[in-house]
Structures are given as structure tokens and as C-alpha cells.
Design brief:
Pfam families (chain A): ABC2_membrane_4 (PF12730)
Shape of chain B: elongated
Shape of chain A: elongated
CATH topology of the largest domain in chain B: Rossmann fold
Distance between the termini of chain B: 39 Å
Helix content of chain A: over 70%
Oligomer: heterodimer
Number of domains of chain A: 1
Largest sheet of chain B: 6 strands, mixed
Helix content of chain B: 25-40%
Largest sheet of chain A: none
Structural class of chain B: alpha/beta
Radius of gyration of chain B: 24 Å
Radius of gyration of chain A: 22 Å
Organism (chain B): Hymenobacter busanensis
Strand order of the largest sheet of chain B: 8-9-10-5-11-12
Family (chain B): Belongs to the ABC transporter superfamily.
Number of helices of chain A: 10
CATH superfamily of the largest domain in chain B: P-loop containing nucleotide triphosphate hydrolases
CATH architecture of the largest domain in chain B: 3-Layer(aba) Sandwich
Strand content of chain B: 15-25%
Number of domains of chain B: 2
CATH class of the largest domain in chain B: Alpha Beta
Number of helices of chain B: 11
InterPro entries (chain B): AAA+_ATPase, ABC_transporter-like_ATP-bd, ABC_transporter-like_CS, P-loop_NTPase
Distance between the termini of chain A: 36 Å
Pfam families (chain B): ABC_tran
Number of strands of chain A: 0
Strand content of chain A: under 5%
Structural class of chain A: mainly alpha
């Protein structure tokens, strides 16, 4: 006769939300193995650094005044290239690639048929994206500072070796830049979840980035999250000499955090009730 | 004898996509330890029903019960006891077979040793460390089944599991499912649009047509249904002439070909009577036999009859 137990068995319990999130995260990290998203994260920072490195290697004397600390000029020059165009595009591409792992495998129906809530799936992918974004910026910073030290060795006439590495200033700049990308990240995340394609959200993200750069002089540009990385950089660059950049957030950064919260909340509600037909 | 309560039960289940009705008053009844073949032509509502059973599409509270519990209320713990393969398996091509299983194992929070166990069960241990993009269609399908078997589920829900498989693949899949049911006591609910694929293993059958259940019961009950549709086939020279010779009560006789006549089977006496009548009228009788319709024909008859 059948031995199927119909009464609630000991396992008849919903796993705690934290447990669900931990499981989803563990699976998501495994899925990143050998993906272009992972390579993009680790290697993309090298590109803007290489450009600035070459400029300083060949033309450094023209860019620096004699006796000047080369570090701030070097860092800001590279950060400018990275922030203006590359960083928003990086976030757009990264989000597309991470979500494409699921979209390409047509795996949503499989994932949602597992005993893990949609909230955990949503939260886990968001954490992966935020983690990769942070990792990419960290990798960029390490390569950037490393390249400065290398210039000190290869071109002693630029005097990198004679000045301390401005760690505190770099970390502060990193903080502002990271916050500045969160609005883009949320919008691209929800768009990729919604369209379930790679091309559409990436095309939209590229269009939005270019539009934001064109509108930089608009009085309401603070409200456009795709412009926030550049706005944050402009603010950092405008700090008067002798003053240090502090951790306090500017209006544009607060607004981008607002976008981040609002878009994620709306996106979650939309996706929570989406039919997997 | 007490009938065991069903493992899967839907009560008056209806579902629409917008204004387009897909399912209408479906009362599914899947007994424990059965292999339930869920049959119907493409677009009849099989996939929609299975997706509702997995919580992928919303069902009104109280309309779907798994293991005697309401799905809408206890979705996650119930899904913990269900393994599913919906159409093509969801596989990550950039990972190998082992890593694919591992991703689902982690997601479900199952013990580590399960990964190797299910790979052995579906016969993929030797290929576990090859990238999945190099897998054949049959191997992909078996890997999908391995994902479904990971939690050692009491209930397996498989949507067209033999889709795209070659005859050998179909035979292997059938043997594996039979083993799971007979040796491990699993309940298997699988859909197909071909009865021939499942008639040799299913214990129960549900036939869905245009969103309504046209038949539900054991395979024996389905066979019994068809016994009323057996026919006598007569091979002679001139079928038309023979038909005119027969008494009026055999008026339903149909001429299938110049020398072939068919009429509804009634009894052994009817057969003897027909033979005697035709021979005494001087007609040659090359063959006289009773033909049972195949399950295939019964299935077609069921799906045609309700397709109005």
C-alpha cells in the first residue's frame, strides 16, 4: 500500500527568509563561474587605467608642474574617463550580462518552481550585482593605484615615488562613485528582469547614458540617475584646494538613492505577481 | 477498500489569460504511487495546468491541493516535495553537468551527496564534468530529470519529458520512470500529446481537450470504454453488394474499400450469423474478424468528440 504521508511532516515548514536568501545567493555565485560578467568585472577597470597610464608615461611632464604632487592629477584624470561614460555603460552591461545567465537558459520557470520565494531570488541577484559592481570598482582602484606606483618606478622624473598614496581621498571618491551608480543599477536590473532579453535593456541603458551626458547643463539634471556618476565626480573636483572631500552625500546622490529604492520596490511588486506562463 | 486520498487534486479549476479562457472546471485526481498520463493535443491546457500545480501561475485559493494541503497557502513547503521538468530543461550552457545540478542543489539547500546520486541515477556520472553545451538532446533531457529528482521528491511533474528524444531515448526515459515508480514508490504526473508514448507505463490517464477533462480514470477504464467501439471487419469480393444483403439492423455497415466492409461489433452470435448469411448468399468470405480500436484511436475519438 502507499506509504505517502499526508499529514504535515517535520519538513512541512517554510524556510526562513534569511535561509532562502543564503541558498539563492550560493546558487547565483556558482552560476557566475566562467561568465563574461565575471571577466568584465575583474578586467574592465584596466582599460581606463591603461589609457591614463600611457598618457602620463609619454607626456607626464607636460601635465604636471614641477614639484607638484602627481597623484591627485593622475587619479582625477583617470577617474574622469572612467566616470563620465565608461562607468554608466559598465553598469548597464554588467546588469545585462548577469541577468542573461538566467534569460539564456530560460531558467526562470525552473527557479520559481523551487521552494525559494521570489523575494529571495530578487534579493540575491540584486546582492550579486551590487557585489560585482563594488568588486569592479575596487579592482579598478587597485589597478589605478598600482599603475601610479609603477610610474614611480619607470618614470622617476614624475615624482610619484616621492609622495604618499592618497588612500583616504581615493576611498572617499570610491564611496561617492559607488552610491552614484545605484540608481542606474536598479533601473537596469528591473528592466532586464522585465524584458528577459539582453539587447533591449542594454540599448535603453546606452541611450539613457548618452542622453544624460547631452543634458549635463540642464537645471534638473540632478534627477537623472544616468548622470549621477559624472555629477559626483564634478562635485569631488570642485572641492577647494586644501580641503578634503567628505563622505556627506550631495543632492544628486540622494536622488539616485531615491530612484534605487523606488525602482526596486516597484520592480519587486511587478515581478512578484508576474505570471510564469 | 479505502481509496487513498489523491496526491494532486484540483477542484473546479478554471484559468484564463486575460479574457481568453484556458481551463474550465478541471477536477484532476492523481492517486499516490501512480503514473498519471496527462494527455491532450497541443494547446489543450496541459502546460497551463502543470504550471498552476507548480505555483508558476496563480490559482484561486482552495482550488489546488498537493499532498492534501492547499497550494496557495503552503506553496514553498509543498514545492519542497515536488520535482519538476517543464518542457525543455533549464540548463546553463557555460557550466558542466555537475555544476548545473549543484546550482539547483544549493538553491534547495539539499545535502552535498545528492548531486552525485542523481547524476548516477540518470546515468550521467561519466559525463558530469563535460560542459553542457556539448550534451546531446537526450543527455540534456536526462540532466533535466536529474534536477527534478534532486530533492528525492514524492511527486514528479514532467511536462512532455520525451519531447525531442529519439526512440532509444524514449525507451530509456520510460524505463527510468517505471523504476522510480515501482522501486521508489514515486508518483509521476507526466503530460504528452501522444498516447503511444505513455500507454505502456501509465496506470492512470487524464485526457484534456480545449481546457476540459474529457476522460479521467485508470488505463483499464479507458480500455473498457473502447470495447463498446469494437467493429467487425469482413473481407469479401463486393462489399457494397454484401451490405445490401444484410438485414436492416446491420444498416450501420460501412464500405471501407471495394472488398472491405465494417460494422459495429455486437456479440459472437452476430459473427456466426454474418458468416452464415454471406456464405448462404453465395458471397466469398476471405476473412471475418473483430477489431478493437487502439488506445490511440480511443484517445483521438475522445479529443474529437469534445472538440465542438
Amino acid at each position: 500500500m502507499s506509504t505517502v504521508v499526508l499529514s504535515p511532516s517535520p519538513s512541512f515548514q517554510t524556510p526562513a527568509p534569511a535561509t532562502q536568501l543564503r541558498r539563492a545567493l550560493s546558487a547565483d555565485v556558482l552560476r557566475l563561474k566562467r561568465t563574461p560578467a565575471l571577466w568584465l568585472t575583474l578586467a574592465s577597470g584596466a582599460f581606463p587605467v591603461a589609457l591614463t597610464f600611457l598618457i602620463f608615461y609619454f607626456k607626464g611632464e607636460y601635465l604636471l608642474k614641477p614639484g607638484q604632487d602627481p597623484w591627485p592629477t593622475y587619479l582625477m584624470q583617470s577617474w574622469q574617463t572612467a566616470c563620465a561614460l565608461l562607468l554608466p555603460l559598465f553598469v548597464v552591461l554588467l546588469t545585462g550580462l548577469v541577468l542573461n545567465v538566467e534569460n539564456k537558459a530560460v531558467a526562470w520557470k525552473h527557479v520559481y518552481a523551487q521552494p525559494v520565494g521570489r523575494g529571495a531570488v530578487f534579493g540575491s541577484k540584486l546582492l550579486v550585482l551590487m557585489g560585482l559592481n563594488a568588486l569592479a570598482m575596487l579592482a579598478y582602484t587597485v589597478i589605478l593605484l598600482g599603475s601610479g606606483l609603477l610610474l614611480g618606478l619607470l618614470r622617476p622624473s614624475l615624482h610619484f615615488q616621492d609622495h604618499a598614496v592618497p588612500l583616504l581621498a581615493t576611498v572617499t571618491l570610491l564611496w561617492h562613485t559607488y552610491i552614484a551608480t545605484l540608481g542606474i543599477l536598479a533601473i537596469q536590473y528591473v528592466a532586464s528582469l522585465w524584458w528577459r532579453s539582453f539587447a533591449t535593456p542594454v540599448a535603453l541603458g546606452m541611450g539613457a547614458t548618452i542622453a544624460a551626458l547631452t543634458l549635463m547643463r540642464w537645471e534638473h539634471i540632478d534627477w537623472v540617475p544616468y548622470a549621477t556618476p559624472l555629477l559626483a565626480l564634478q562635485k569631488a573636483a570642485s572641492v577647494p584646494k586644501g580641503h578634503a572631500l567628505d563622505l556627506a552625500l550631495a543632492k544628486a546622490e540622494w536622488l539616485t538613492l531615491g530612484w534605487f529604492g523606488l525602482v526596486l520596490l516597484g520592480g519587486y511588486v511587478l515581478l512578484r505577481y508576474r505570471h510564469e506562463g | 477498500m479505502l481509496t487513498p486520498p489523491p496526491l494532486v487534486e484540483t477542484r473546479g479549476l478554471s484559468f484564463s489569460y486575460g479574457k481568453r479562457p484556458i481551463l474550465h472546471d478541471v477536477n484532476l485526481h492523481v492517486p499516490p504511487a501512480s503514473i498519471y498520463g496527462f494527455l491532450g493535443p497541443n494547446g489543450a491546457g496541459k502546460s497551463t495546468t502543470l504550471r498552476i500545480l507548480l505555483g508558476l501561475l496563480p490559482a484561486p485559493a482552495g482550488s489546488v491541493q498537493l499532498f492534501g494541503h492547499d497550494l496557495a497557502q503552503h506553496r514553498l513547503p509543498l514545492l519542497g516535495r515536488v520535482g519538476a521538468l517543464i518542457e525543455m530543461p533549464s540548463l546553463y550552457d557555460h557550466l558542466n553537468g555537475f555544476e548545473n545540478v549543484e546550482a539547483t542543489r544549493r538553491l534547495r539547500g539539499l545535502p552535498r551527496h545528492r548531486t552525485a546520486e542523481v547524476l548516477t541515477l540518470v546515468g550521467l556520472s561519466a559525463d558530469a564534468h563535460r560542459p553542457v553545451r556539448a550534451y546531446s538532446l537526450g543527455m540534456r533531457q536526462r540532466l533535466g530529470l536529474a534536477l527534478a529528482l534532486l530533492p528525492d521528491p514524492d511527486l514528479l511533474i514532467l511536462d512532455e519529458p520525451t519531447n525531442g528524444l529519439d526512440p532509444q531515448g524514449i525507451t530509456e526515459m520510460r524505463a527510468l520512470l517505471l523504476r522510480l515508480q515501482q522501486e521508489h514508490g514515486k508518483t509521476i504526473l507526466l503530460s504528452s500529446h501522444l498516447i503511444s508514448e505513455i500507454e505502456r507505463m501509465a496506470t492512470h490517464v487524464g485526457v484534456i481537450q480545449q481546457g476540459r477533462l474529457a476522460f479521467q480514470g485508470t488505463v483499464r477504464e479507458l480500455q473498457r470504454q473502447q470495447s463498446g467501439r469494437a467493429q467487425v471487419v469482413i473481407e469479401t469480393d463486393d462489399a457494397e453488394r454484401c451490405r445490401n444483403l444484410l438485414p436492416l439492423e446491420f444498416g450501420a455497415a460501412r464500405v471501407l474499400a471495394t472488398g472491405t466492409l465494417a460494422l459495429p461489433y455486437q456479440s459472437p452470435e452476430q459473427m456466426a450469423y454474418l458468416a452464415q448469411e454471406l456464405v448462404s448468399a453465395g458471397q466469398p468470405l476471405y476473412s471475418l474478424r473483430c477489431e478493437q480500436p487502439s488506445l490511440e484511436q480511443t484517445f483521438l475519438h475522445l479529443t474529437e468528440a469534445t472538440a465542438l
